Amino acid sequence: MNRNVATIPQDLIAALKKAKHVVVFTGAGVSAESGIPTFRDSLTGLWERFNAEDLATPGAFRKDKELVWGWYEWRRMKVLQAQPNPAHIAIAALATLVPKLTIVTQNVDDLHERAGSTDVLHLHGSLHSPRCATCGQAHILPPGIPVEPEGGRRLSPPVCICGGLVRPGVVWFGEDLPVRELRQAFEAAQKCDVLFAIGTSGLVQPAARIPSLAKQAGACVVQVNPTSTGLDRECTWSVRGAAGEIMPNLLQAAFGRTA
Ligand code: APR
């Protein structure tokens, strides 16, 4: 039975305090308060006339590699200009407050890591790990923040030493997720006592299975999201609100500290 709550329930606090293994499963909403547009928000500025799903595919890259590379460099620039928000910081602190914490993210930013989290399982790859589309060799990006593409959105992707094109290190629609990360994420969901689903619409499989795997295995599932999602029915509690506000408040209520 899903309980929509605006304040943090006492039984959630009790469950968190006695949990031996907690999983935090995040989506784009956890980075929203860092200024990073969520995936299904309308694209901003230069990208407002594009549909994200039409840029994040192998076919889009084959069709217009400069447009796709320019979009990912724009997204990487936004991330490098952003800072972790109180949600990322509270999630990083949670690792010091519970016996075992597993962080699984659908996000391709590194804000969890920059908040101090380690061993983050990235199910959809990372903006910071481009690779050669031909030989798979990792490509080292120049340091610093990429300059906003002059006059618009196209940028030529780098060329690998093998002659192949460098592509973003993210999982595109139609591509397989990394096997090790997905297996570890499913295993953690099936073994944990409490799973937080934070800032995700729960629309994209197979990641969206994670909360139901936890619930079927007997865990308490807590959703943190200002709006209702398809995950509502999987959740023990749906705490309505912004992650950057809810997560520090939850840590304060359960452990007497926010970071
Ligand atoms: N705090 C918590 N949740 C928030 C906040 C916030 N401050 N702001 C927005 N949200 C919620 C929105 O209500 C929405 O439910 O975050 C969710 C973001 O949903 P999406 O944009 O669909 O992002 P996500 O669920 O991560 O998408 C999953 O789909 O397109 C693919 O690969 C892409 O990783 C992405 C995946």
Description:
A seven-stranded parallel sheet has the order 1-9-8-7-2-3-4, with helices on both faces. The protein has a two-stranded antiparallel sheet with strand order 5-6. α5 (86-94) runs parallel beside α9 (243-255). The chain is elongated, with a radius of gyration of 19 Å. Helix content is 32%, strand content 13%. It folds into two domains: 1-36 and 84-126 and 177-259, TPP-binding domain (Rossmann fold); 38-81 and 131-167, SIR2/SIRT2 'Small Domain', CATH 3.30.1600.10. The chain is α/β, with parallel strands linked by helices and 259 residues long. The chain contains nine helices and nine strands. It has helices at residues 10-18, 52-55, 58-63, 65-81, 86-94, 111-114, 179-191, 210-216, 243-255; strands spanning 3-5, 21-26, 100-105, 121-122, 131-132, 166-167, 194-198, 220-224, 237-239. Bound molecules: adenosine-5-diphosphoribose. Adenosine-5-diphosphoribose is lined by residues 27-29, 32-33, 38-40, 106, 124, 199-201, 203-204, 224-227, 229, 242-244.
Structural class: alpha/beta
**Beta fraction:** 5-15%
Give the oligomeric state: single chain
How many domains in all?
2
Number of strands: 9
Mean pLDDT reading: 92
User: Looking across the biggest beta sheet, what order are the strands in?
Assistant: 1-9-8-7-2-3-4
Ligands bound here?
adenosine-5-diphosphoribose
